[in-house]
Amino acid sequence: MLFQPVASRAAADDVARQIEHLVLEGVLHPGDRLPGERELSAQLGVSRPILREALKALEANGLIESRHGGGTYVAAIEGDIFAAPIVELIAASPKAAEDYLAFRREIEATAAAMAAARATEADRTILDRILLQMEEAHRAADLQREAALDVEFHKAIGEATHNIVMIHVLRACYRLLSEGVFRNRSRLYGKDGSRDALLAQHRSLLAAIATGDAAMARNAGIAHIDYVEAALKADAEAGARLEIATRRLIQFEERSAPRRAPRRTVKDDAKDAGGDADEGTSHSARKG
């Protein structure tokens, strides 16, 4: 059971602390719906007035939110990692994309090693089930779902570290992906051969974590980001070559096209007529 009964004569603060703990440890995710009031009070073993008081305090602190007619949900507690102006600058900067991958290489390698050392059987079960869903999406050629599950897989690795700071740093990191600041996933999953390679890399990560081999997990994490970086670089270079080649073709066709005589204007006709008159006058003068 997700929620545990609190001690007898528990106050609203005790109820709130249990929910806060589940949020902090990454058990409850942003957007998760809490059970209804009757069910939740029964699980916690408290009266409904005490539960309401606890939920009111949590909502005041911004940890949960009530939706009219839709229940109570965990709020988007990560917030924005950067303010909107800097997000726009980051999205337009090739160097920022490179720095983002360099950051991910280090933090994901560390997270994979920590997960291999600390993951419980429940953590490994979560990772295994996400990978199975990825394989299903892969077989169905559902690129969008496969890419979304890619992010969920890496978030689950972060949670398997059982390090609170790592969990929330990785969530903030992946939020940049979900918001489209870095479009790595869409570019990679639309590239021939990349989907197979990425799935194999995720299998290697899970195998290393499942066997508890921290060094192997670290190397698998580094190899994964190295592949992503190399694939994106090759894609960018191919795009640049295509753009230049297309421009060359346009210019080649322009040079090869038959040259047309300039279109005559009224001024051209008037000029020619004036020239003929002058020539006739000059000829008459010489003859006289």
Automatic annotation (TrEMBL):
One of its GO terms (molecular function) is DNA-binding transcription factor activity. It comes from the Bacteria. Residues 265-274 have a biased composition (Basic and acidic residues). InterPro entries: GntR_C (IPR011711), TF_FadR/GntR_C (IPR008920), Tscrpt_reg_HTH_GntR (IPR000524), WH-like_DNA-bd_sf (IPR036388), WH_DNA-bd_sf (IPR036390). Keywords: DNA-binding, Pyruvate, Repressor, Transcription, Transcription regulation. It holds the Pfam family GntR. Residues 9-77 form the HTH gntR-type domain. Residues 253-288 are annotated as: Disordered. Transcriptional repressor for the pyruvate dehydrogenase complex genes aceEF and lpd. PANTHER family: PYRUVATE DEHYDROGENASE COMPLEX REPRESSOR, TRANSCRIPTIONAL REGULATOR, GNTR FAMILY. This is Pyruvate dehydrogenase complex repressor. It comes from Kaistia hirudinis. The lineage of its organism: Bacteria, Pseudomonadati, Pseudomonadota, Alphaproteobacteria, Hyphomicrobiales.
